[in-house]
Amino acid sequence: MSRTSQSRSLNSSELEIIMHRRESQLSSDDVRHAYPSDLEAVKALVNEDTKVVFGKIDVSEILDMCHVSVCIENSNKEIVGCLCLDDHPNVPSIPPWEWNHWLYNIYHLELITPRNTLFVHMVAWDCRYNYSFLRPTLKYTFGRHHFLEYIILVIPPGVTKLDWLEGHGTRILPSGFSESQKVQTLYLIVRQHYMTKYKIRRAVEEDNDDLVPLVHAYSERLQEYYGEFYIAEMLTRHADSGRQLIVAEYKEQAVAVLCLNETVNLDLLNEAFELSPFYGLRKLHEDDDFVKREVSHTSTLWDEEMEDTHHLLTPIEHKFEEPREISSIGSFDSEEEIEVSRTPSEDSLDEFSLVDISSIHLLLDVHSREGRASFETTSSDEFSAVMLSFNDYEMHLFSDKRGVKSVSFEDLEHHTQMKTHKYIPNIPKLYGELNAFTLELAAAHPHHEVESLNLLLEAAFECFPYRDYCVLSIPSTCPPFPLLSNFSRVAPRPVSTYPQELYVLHRNVVLSNVSVRVATRTDIPAIEYLTYYMVPPGKLIENFTSAVNEDDNYRAFVLLSEEQVVGAAVLREEEDFEYLKTHYELMYWLDENHHKPGSYGLLEYLALSPIFQRHSRFFLREIHRLSDYSALYYCIFPSDTIHTQKDRPLCCVISDLIPIRPRPMFEFTHTNVEGCTPADVVHRKDAPFALYLSTARHCTLPRYEINKKIVVVGASDTALSFLDSLLCSWSTSYYVTFTNVSVVSPHGLPYQKEDNYIRDMMFVKRSHYNYRHMHLTSLRTYVNTVNGVMTGIDRKNKLLILNDNKFLAYDLLFLMCGEQFQKPTLTIEKREKKENEPRKPKQFPENVFLINTETDATNALIKLKSLIMELRQTVYTVIVYGNALETYACLATLLEYGVPGSNIVFVESFPVVSENKFPHHVSHFNDGDIDEAVQAAIISEGITVHSSYYFVEWMLDKVTNRVATVKFESRHRKIFIDCIAMFMYNDKLVSARTFLAISQAGLVFDGALVIGPDCRTNDPSIYAAGTITKYSRRYYADHMAHKYYNLEEIGYKLGQKIRQKLIPFCDETIDSGPLICEPGNMLVPTYEKPLMTYCRLPGNLRYLLVTKPGVQVPMEVAMSSDDYGQVLVTGDCKQIDKQGFFRLHLNQHGAVETITCLTKSDIDCINLTHLWGKHEKLLNNLQMRFEMVLITDLYDYFKEPWSCAIYHDRFSLLEKDIKTLLTAYTPMLGESLIEDLIRMFQENDWNKLTLDQKEEIEEKFTGSPYHKLLEEKVLDFLRDNETFLPMYAHPATVRYLLQGCENSPLFEPQ
């Protein structure tokens, strides 16, 4: 018994020890990159051993500034160790750019270079893992950084023994010293001690059993291509096929294999891809026809779209005394000249991605898939509504009210006549020998993939010693894998029909010695040679020469491979950091406290050989080290994207830079309080540019290329928001570049033309997008744009048919084309009268204008001016027809444009008859007083108004193809109006071409394109969002259709969801609510952001409406509800000249629900939109002040200094923090406000709280820790944003103002 008892006791102790050892076992799989969010966990690991080696350290600065920071977690996901490495030693007296000389002179280390060495700046660990945390951390670090050979720790004098470091490397003393405790020593950690040892050899028959399971398990696609093959069969039967197989052997077992093939179809690849930078994968030959390539006209970026049209959109001057007065239009002498210059988009071609300028699109001829295809870009000066419907407009006129439902599919034979521009690829004729081999197959065991494949890749070039390139082709849907990081992606040609992506690797990328140094005068000839083929070269050579001549303004660096220049960079100090910090979201990436003054650089030029594109991040890292610029910026101006205006080559490392979003700036108003106005840098508005950032830490983050072909049809606000969310979102964990994103739109991306107040007046503003915002963002950098119309969808082959004879391949298709104003329809009676008459295709009348895009508006206004000048009379008629808010904006535009009100006839059609279940008709303004004020303003301008008429037909002048007379009917009479032009705003509908493309493709269309809660159609590869969509009937959610909600929010949420789906190991969190639909969940998402409407109206009126999302209810009906709330009104619509009308609706909870403004003064739209959803208590006790008659003008009230914090772009983050704080549970039982609130609501059966309960909560809050924490958060917010908010008296500011007040004779101690 005693022996048994003793045995049990012993086993229990041993079990405890075994469990502790098991917990302390860590592997490299537990290591990951350390992020700023890990700061508190890492701080807790800093112990005395850390301080002995590194002294007093700032953990936050080290994590933020170090080149590589990794941490290791235990089985409970707790951080138990952290290692931080940088590219220079942590010795303050050694400059980062000079440490290699110090290391060689003192320690005689000859093999140490900046390329293969990193220095330890901090090590922190949990004492329980004293002997187990470092080895897996080092193994992970060496494995993820293939070129890293050495890690060095600088040990200060006096440190004799480090237990946690013993056995991991070698201690090195300075030359001539023997006692380590008296001198500074180095601890050298070598790569080979931590990496797996492989034997690289050619494959033999015996490897068959090891390799075949690897190949089959690696990818089903490989098995589809190769079938059930055997390695042994490839080595014996097909030994003369030109294939070579090499394997990596570990413990006598083949764990990785590469299959190489000497055969490469160069003709096919050169026709499909831009291989000129790689010399066509051939060797040099004396007969090569390789001339300096000129950029084709088809590769212009926004040339005509960005062209200045201000001189054409000046107001009309009615002077007809002398013929030469026509020159005021734009100095045109004939109608032909007017036609040539009439539109900036007349010859506009496709817009291309700046990340990959040659990666245009696969915009191909359907009938030319075999052999060499010609590339035709399509453009048109027609209105977008005409392009989106059929060419025979009479056929469309004789359809019923719903238009597209009566059109037969046979009518597709008549289509819009569009201008096409053929593109013939410029392929140089090369005669040299083949200089490439193919990587056909790469497979490895998952545990050996990272290490073994890189070694095999180096050995592959030994199999073909006389060839310099290795080519790899993968499907666009293939997810990123580690081996791909060595290759450079080759851009496809516009005519390419090749279904896969092509990657190229030069032997010097993996085998040569690469270094970076400061440029010298001797490098100038090499730079001239390197940039010889750049178009345009710009001032690169000039600035480079200035830099090497020690010009203080510029600094230059070169990238060398085997001492040959393969890259160059020119930069200068960024002197306007305050402007960048104020107008861009830089503080999400930079902690200003960690960057010393003068450490910000501006990258002017960076030229890099395409062969060495994969060394771009090393080049940037070394530029940071040698220049001592901890942050580098790069700017893309609008002129950089216009071929006819750009004066410098674009930086070729944009994909390695971080796109920085612009800050939404609120509108500052002048106050009478001295010192309340923000600094001038806040008010400044320089020319817009997109900003990019590089820091040393971000140069080592994982980088993924998503090659999936993403095609977005339409350029609506929904589409722009979707692209913004998908492409420009950021993560501190990795880089992501989307290489194949295309947008299809009749007139390209919107907001590309510089602001013109007359043209912009024609549109009703419902989003924050405008010309400035589009050029402040990096959206244009990543998007290819095709000017065309979707006419079909081939779902089987995943092809989008454009203009009936071109196709665009896609992997994911997003339909966001929305609804547009369509061509007019005739009555059923008129159609029956004409149905037996032969139909003749006709062009749409040139004096009937349908405005859907900026190009439509520009064309219409320029054409209207030419018609008026051609008529040479002051008496004429311009008709504006429709029943949309845009019609009022059009009237205001015509008046501003110089058309007299007496020459304008406004025909207001019947209200749209709603086909849904909602019986109420909501007027445009939903306010009777505003309706009357607007009608009075229209009449006061002399405009003739015909209400409740509908369009019947027009009489056409067959010679000029212009409408001469238009017929309208009401219920009681008919009218005929002669006109020189007509603006038509019919019902917004899905265009005929879009409807036919959708329905013929088999997508469910039930009055709108049917989608599910995740915006997916019945095709899993096709999504849709915006006004074109509706939810499936099984959800009973007609009242929650997208058209009733904020379209920007819908697009943004969808972009987040797709981004999370496409990025491997995505760690980005998306907001709860929209698009978070679990399988089986029948609930559709809800959206919360308000609806904003702003436009200019006749009579110089400005109108703004901000209201809650959802189906709009007539104001009279809403006000009859018991829980409507309260309305605060200042001003009177009948006396609008004296004071602007401002109506503020507070709901039953006291929150702002509706904002309505009508005034002749400018409206701060951005500021007032921020008021929506705010409680009246937050608005400086708005309700109490209004009842006390302290507020006589709400416009002035919301311009007072107290309101500026609410308009700040980061105020919403403060609100979110406070909400989190107030709803958090405290560790002390009974001290949580949220617990008390839940208890009180339960006692009241979830009814409203009583007055006593509210007082109890307020009293408890006043004396609780919540009150103090809330104050601290608000004060921190004001301190951090003092530049924007100097009008608030922060305690620190008050103390500064009162400094020395005790010495004043007026001071009396309390």
From TrEMBL:
A Pfam family that this protein carries is CFAP61_dimer
Gene3D superfamilies, per the entry: FAD/NAD(P)-binding domain
Q: Which residues cross the membrane?
A: none
Q: Which residues form the CFAP61 dimerisation domain?
A: 1085-1206
Residue stretches making up the Cilia- and flagella-associated protein 61 N-terminal domain: 31-283
Q: What is this protein called?
A: Cilia- and flagella-associated protein 61 N-terminal domain-containing protein
The organism named in the record is: Ignelater luminosus (Cucubano)
